[in-house]
Amino acid sequence: MKVLVIGGNGFIGSRLAMRLRAEGDAVRVVDVGLPRADIDWRGVNYQQVSLADRKGVAQALVGVDAVFHCASSTVPSTSNLDPIRDIEQNLVGAVHLLEAMRESDVRRIVYLSSGGTVYGHPTVVPVPEGHDLRPISSYGVIKVAIEKYLLMYQALHGIEPVILRPSNPYGPGQLPTGLQGLIASFLGRVAAGNVLPIWGDGEVVRDYLYIDDLIDMLVVAARHTSTGIFNVGSGQGHSVNDIVDVIAAVTERQFDVVRMESRSFDVRRVVLDISRANEVFGWRPRTELPEGVARAWAWINEHSLGLSANPHT
């Protein structure tokens, strides 16, 4: 299979590209950034192209059987600072991609939406795909809008979308210096001997998904014939305080915690109902949280990625 990975230089996209290459697929990556140095890109056709570059995107689609859209220029904590920029870069860019797919007659697309932001404050936990969509960040609003465009292009132009709503992915390859990734950030701070900042009381609950389990789902979704919307998570909830306890046990390090003011964009509790992904694709997560955190910790130490930033940021 010939595949195009949009955002293939990021945490998820780069791991996906490596898996696809290992399985014998012809992999083309499109990303705005230079190739990250911790990845062996041999055998991958890496193109530094923005989704705003219509000609570049059209050329990248030539001969492609399936597209993975893993790119986003914002995260929930930054998206509300400039919603117009969020629209211009992410929503408009996604529509450019869909137009290019329509013109190139490329039909299959796997889109990484968000299981942590599109539902807003859920009224039912675990949260099913049919729950009302009430995002409270521009990031979530844009994800929902792109989902709607995907479904529109399916109805009008025969695009075959698989919309995945992942929970909170973590694991080897996630840099501790990024704006997303609580586990990676905390592990980096522990490695550097910094305190761990906790917003609010630490009882915000999230569904944490190990990266290899997410990649499994991405790959099977592209090779399958089904379309639709699917939650992808562990199906289990862990509070920030729980994560701190797991990190303490895995690292066997002593560290201090500083309590910060709670953040308005933090949804209190999100755990995903993942039964539909299992029913349709036979997919289920395999990695328990302590095992996944241990692997992430080993990777951070292997790459000497201890975070030395201001502990209050």
How would you sum up this structure, described in words?
The C terminus is likely disordered. This protein has a seven-stranded parallel β-sheet, sandwiched between helices. The chain has a two-stranded parallel ribbon with strand order 7-10. A two-stranded parallel sheet has the order 8-13. Helix 1 crosses helix 7, helix 6 crosses helix 10 and helix 8 crosses helix 10. The protein is globular. Helices cover 39% and strands 17% of the residues. It is built from ten helices and 13 strands. It is α/β, with parallel strands linked by helices and 313 residues long.
Over the alpha carbons, how many angstroms does the gyration radius reach?
Answer: 19 Å
* H/E element order: EHEEHEHHEHEEHEEEHEEHEHH
**Distance between the terminal alpha carbons, to the nearest Å?**
43 Å
Largest sheet properties: 7 strands, parallel
Q: Level of helix content?
A: 25-40%
Give the structural class.
alpha/beta
List keywords for this structure.
single chain; 313 residues; alpha/beta; 7-stranded parallel beta sheet; two-stranded parallel sheet; 13 strands; 17% strand; globular; disordered C terminus
